[in-house]
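Working notes for the structural subgroup meeting. M.R. asked for a predicted model of this chain before we commit to crystallization trials. I am recording the input and output together here so anyone reviewing the notebook later can reproduce the run.

Input as submitted:
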Amino acid sequence: MILSVPLGGKLCVTQECFIKNKDNEARFMSHPNQAQQAAVDKINPVGEPIKEQAVDFFLYFPTEWDACVAASQLMNLHFSASVRSADSRNDQWLCQARKKLRPTAGRLRSLAIFLERLASGNNGIFDTWGLPDPE
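Returned structure, recorded in token form:
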């Protein structure tokens, strides 16, 4: 399922699909695609200079410890990160990371792959990215 929806002033994009890991367990993965390119085009209209701006990334974990370890790893890479109980996901912990960057489709694709690996290495999943509310 592909979603590209404004949420309370935020633009969020995700594609969720099932994959099987080495133990043949199904899990969600998110992959940037044409929907992300369309979202990037809304952020930075074609022909306009690409502006640096904050982008939020959402990772979910089964334990607070896993989320905190991921947050620490992200902070070492100059992301700001916070951890809290995920209201909409029972017994899950959200690590919300933010980084200021020029959001191109290629850059977001690379970050999605990196964040999927980081989350997976800490027993979690990378869900999506979005833009913070304008100030």
